[in-house]
Specification:
This protein is an all-alpha fold. It is built from 11 helices and no strands.
Amino acid sequence: MSEPSTEEEFTARLRALSSRYWDSHPFHLRLHAGELSKDELRLWAANRWYYQRCIPRKDAAILANCPDQDVRRQWRERIVWHDGERAGEGGAENWLRMAEALGLTREEVLDERHVLPGTRFAVDAYVTFARTRPWVEAVASGLTEMFSRGLMTRRLADMRERYPWIAEEGFTYFTTRLKVIEGEGKSTLDLVVRNCRTREHQDAAVAALAFKCDVLRAILDAVDYYAVGGADRTTGRS
């Protein structure tokens, strides 16, 4: 069996997967260039909602599989961030406000009428991965946090400039998420490095992160394919 990588080498292997992140996906490039129609933005928001609503389920699966009390105490805060302490709060609620700012009704987002099969398949596979794989691998899959702050910062600036018709309250998800994402990414990386001490475990962590990158790109593949094929079919609005 191969010797484990050093912490520096292991970290470098994880960071090298940034090229597989979804920031360079054609749909994201069009979004940032201001080239999306209102219907395409609505389609994106409705499909991204399905991913947002499943994140707490993914995190709950990690908690269920993790025997370490300290890790569970740390990780449960993520569920609270997304679900909120009470109704009307949290990251999921803020994403619904984004969808409403784009012109979707809360009802049509919540009933998932616009969620595409490819999106549902990819996100469900991610939840299943977290439920069935060792907890450290599921945590490692979330290391896309290492890559997301730059994309989110750019998205907030570009959407404000390119889509000035979006009300400012629609950006609350991004403004609040930016306050925590960097710290979460650092703590998640430390957790993975600390708990992956064999080459086998390190390889599994790298594979888990690659899988998550594929999940994210698969979501945009579905949205992009449908949008290019006829965005007007999304909501029937201009």
